[in-house]
Write a structure and sequence with these properties.
The protein is built from 8 helices and 11 strands. It has a 7-stranded mixed sheet, with helices on both faces. The longest helix is centred in the middle third of the chain and has 20 residues. It is of the alpha/beta class and about 280 residues long. Acetyl-CoA carboxylase is a heterohexamer composed of biotin carboxyl carrier protein (AccB), biotin carboxylase (AccC) and two subunits each of ACCase subunit alpha (AccA) and ACCase subunit beta (AccD). Keywords: ATP-binding, Cytoplasm, Fatty acid biosynthesis, Fatty acid metabolism, Lipid biosynthesis, Lipid metabolism, Nucleotide-binding, Transferase. Belongs to the AccD/PCCB family. Pfam families: Carboxyl_trans.
């Protein structure tokens, strides 16, 4: 099958064929800059010429945050069921199996605990490559259990969001995860355990409407799409031209919904700085 399909209104790439981390010898950024993929990997998948942050997944974020990439994965075998017997062009179990085979993941989030700059940290990191990072019951359950682990062991919690929103194949069960994760974060706050939320490209839909915007500190990577409904939907609904950079992290920061934006290379240091400040500990070098 061709990698693109022609439509009446232009060329559109099917969602299942879109790429995240680049494959091949070269990678071309949206601005047209071309970079060797090995150099891109060494630069944390950030283009050195224009600063474009390529979408990456839990594997790369765990490598970035955990010292020596050493961590213990939590609840790694949880996998979704099909209680609604959902079927559109494919049956839901077939979609799950295809996504698992393609990505090597069980679902759209991985959770783990390890050391970051020498101190314990629990991380939940979403993977857009798995059905668009959509939030289903397993995503909500794994995040909830990771928060329980943080509370039980008195360890700070970092949520790395990258999601298209609720998973339509689970309907109301997916929407229930908004309440479930928000309630768990309230318990985390009651226990006075720090929570840092990192929004990456894209953070949209039910993810934004729940845990992604509930951090003690909300931060983002540069030029990340952060929204409830995406720009195209908003434009189609309002019929108006949108401001330049609408719903990108810089726009969101300017309008008060973020605390800061950091380049990927600075995330580990800055997250740990926030955690030290919140916990009133000595600042780590």
């Amino acid at each position: 099958m061709a990698w693109f399909k022609r439509k009446d209104k232009g060329i559109q790439t099917p969602t299942e064929e879109k790429k995240d981390t680049p494959k091949g010898l070269w990678y071309k950024t949206p601005s047209g800059k071309i970079i060797d993929t090995e150099e891109l990997r060494k630069n944390l998948y950030v283009s050195p010429e224009d600063g474009y942050h390529v979408r990456v997944g839990s594997k790369e974020y765990f490598e970035l945050f955990f010292d020596n990439n050493e961590f213990t994965e939590l609840n790694e075998k949880l996998s979704a069921k099909d209680p609604l017997k959902f079927e559109d062009t494919k049956k839901y179990p077939e979609r799950l199996k295809a996504a698992q085979d393609k990505t090597g993941l069980k679902d759209a989030v991985r959770t783990a605990v390890g050391k970051s700059l020498g101190k314990d940290l629990v991380i939940a990191s979403m993977d857009f490559a798995f059905i668009g990072g959509s939030m289903g019951s397993v995503v909500g359950e794994k995040i909830a259990r990771a928060i329980d682990y943080s509370i039980e062991h008195n360890i700070p919690f970092l949520m790395i969001s990258k999601s298209g929103g609720a998973r339509m194949m689970e309907a109301s069960l997916s929407l229930m995860q908004l309440v479930k994760t928000s309630a768990k974060l309230a318990q985390l706050a009651d226990a006075k355990i720090p929570y840092v939320s990192l929004c990456t490209d894209p953070t949209t839909g039910g993810t934004t409407a729940s845990f992604a915007m509930l951090g003690d500190i909300n931060i983002a990577e540069p030029n990340a799409l952060i929204a409830f409904a995406g720009p195209r939907v908003v434009k189609d609904t309002t019929g108006k031209e949108l401001p330049e950079g609408f719903q990108r992290s810089e726009f969101v920061l300017e309008h008060g919904f973020l605390d800061a934006i950091y380049e990927r290379k600075n995330l580990k240091k800055q997250v740990n700085l926030y955690l030290d400040l919140i916990q009133n500990q000595h600042i780590r070098a």
